[in-house]
Design a protein that fits this description.
About 10% of the residues lie in helices and about 40% in strands. It is mainly beta. Strand 1 and strand 2 form a beta hairpin. The protein binds zinc ion.
Length: about 140
């Protein structure tokens, strides 16, 4: 995600991050990223949408360890997660791990352990990373 996209899709106040989404005024469908053309459920035009913000909290529904990547950051291996937000939409992001770039230990694979756990998205430099909630201070 480039800086312009990140700026458009997020708002932050101090430590608090929120995600910019849209709600269809005709059918109530919630979309993140926000709809730019029309409702993917009922087809209502973008003018029939309101901007809403979502808390970046949810449950990890899928996770995978990435061992090879076409860019130097984040350092491999890292864990990509799909997070089902409490308000419905799902999004992908990098899972914050205690030691980025270290190989997962068999049986304690971060991707395996992350599934089903609650996470919160935080802005880390130029990207949103997800932190396991029980590990936050
Ligand atoms: Zn709709």
């Amino acid at each position: 995600m480039d800086d312009a996209t990140l700026d458009r899709l997020t708002r932050s106040e101090g430590d608090q991050l929120s995600l910019v989404a849209s709600r269809c005024l005709d059918c109530g469908h919630l979309a993140f990223p926000d709809e730019r053309y029309g409702c993917e459920r009922c087809g209502a035009l973008v003018e029939r949408h309101e901007s809403v913000t979502l808390a970046p909290r949810g449950v990890v529904s899928a996770a995978a360890t990435v061992h090879r990547h076409h860019q130097p950051e984040p350092a491999t291996p890292f864990v990509m997660v799909t997070v089902r937000l409490d308000e419905g939409p799902a999004l992908k992001g990098v899972l914050a791990t205690p030691a980025p770039g270290t190989a997962p230990t068999p049986g304690t694979d971060a991707a395996h352990l992350a599934r089903g756990r609650r996470v919160e998205g935080r802005l880390d430099g130029d990207r949103v990373t997800f932190h396991l909630l029980e590990e936050l201070g």
